[in-house]
Amino acid sequence: MGFKQELANFPREIGRALTLNRIQALVFFTSWWCWTLSCMQFYLLPYTQPAIAETLGVSTSKIAQANTTSMLSRSIGAAIFGVLSDQYGRKIPLTIVFILMAVFTLCSGFINTYQQLIAVRFLFGLTYGAVYGVTMAAAMEAVPREARDIVAGFTQQGFGAGNMLASGFHLAMGNYGWRSLYYLGAGLNVTAIALRLACPEYSLIKEARQEGDNIAGPTNAQDSTDAKLPFWVKFRFAIVRHWPIFIYCTVLMACFNTLGHGHMDVYPSFLQTQRGLSVLHETYVTVILQSGGILGGVVGGYLCRYSPKWVPFGFALLLGPILPAIILPHRWQALAAGAFFFEFSYGAAIGTIGNTLQMVCPHPGIRAAFGGVVYNLGNAISSVAPTIETTLGNDLSTEDGIPDYGRIILILVGIMIGLLALTLACMPIKSVNIEWDQEDPNQAIPDHEVPTKATKHVVNEIEHVRDVEKQVEHKPPNSEHGESEFIENISTRG
After folding, report:
1. The whole model's pTM is what?
2. Which of 441, 442, 460 lies closest to 451, judged by CA?
3. pLDDT in the model for residue 450
4. Burial of 429 by CB count in 10 Å (0-12 exposed, 13-18 middle, 19+ buried)?
5. For residues 267 and 409, is the Cβ–Cβ distance under 8 A?
6. Which residue would you say has higher pLDDT here, 494 or 269?
7. CA-based Rg of the chain, rounded to a whole angstrom?
8. Strand runs (DSSP E) across 215-272, as ranges?
């Protein structure tokens, strides 16, 4: 199919892939909104960074370290709530997460010392890290296979939508002080809690299994994951047999997240301090930038059906020549145009990663924990990026004495584009299992790891031949009676 025909079929294929029933659509929207809302609360700090620094009497680089603290604690939350989710269902663990997140975000609005800020953002990071793995696993198991790449691309861009919301609220509530943003963010958690409680535990996989077995009745919390096997049994198999995939996915997410946080977390500071944009024009640039990311996530997710490896690789390469366009212009319109295309390419590259992590997960019974932990371990590695950029930006100044954040973004993000492209090119495509949804999460060894009957037969034949060869090598010498007995024994075994 030619490119023009593919482009013409794109809207129709998107619509066909997203033909979901009411429950599937509710799970999809709930997962997207939970991830979007948590990202919005994370991005409140970069937008209020100068104001908080002034209130606490510290440098902006010190405030950036508070976000670093959040990123370091995310893996702990991902592990705790990922295990709970895989064993006991998605609803209750995620509800608890958002109750705690509301408390910690509210506390962020009451801090009066730098030590309080660090402590509160560390606790916030525990809840923020728990969201990604659980929501992505819930979305992927609820929608048909042909829709997963697109759903993953749109859900992944919840961090872009959250950034956009944080920017909009920062503009709208500028007259009420920075603390009001955290009060608002805490209150909005009520919507995520209500949606998650209203959304049933739903698994398309479980539903198909019920229909195949003629089982009647709705699924309950534990049915959605079928967690009858202890988690440590599944984890032991995954880490012993497939530890390289853990390392690869962590490195891949470190590249993606360092690139993402490297240009997004300090970009508002760059626009305001180095380009002198007003809050209004900075918001325009951010909204246009994140709109490109959301569109790119959907397009990249759609195209990844052809290759989960080379499609992201191609979009990663496109980032290189576009990078200068987000820094060099001085007018906000030109900055917005460059930012749109840069974020479109980045969104298309990372868009389907949520589904890819499900497909490379070594065991179907640990999908929430695996996806959440490797994603947030990558974030932990990338956590130093904003602090490095802010610190170097203060040390490297322009002729006007303004921190040269632009030069730092160009250097760091340029390096990460090269590392990301290299990592994507090394993706172990043989580890991708698109049929994970047909496997029983209660098997200690997943179906794709168990030899088929034909394979077992071949293995048995090979072992039998080897036994015969060993016996021939040890055949009793110069004994007619022994030789005939030996041949008779072999014939009997055969």
Report:
1. 0.82
2. 460
3. 63
4. exposed
5. yes
6. 269
7. 26
8. none
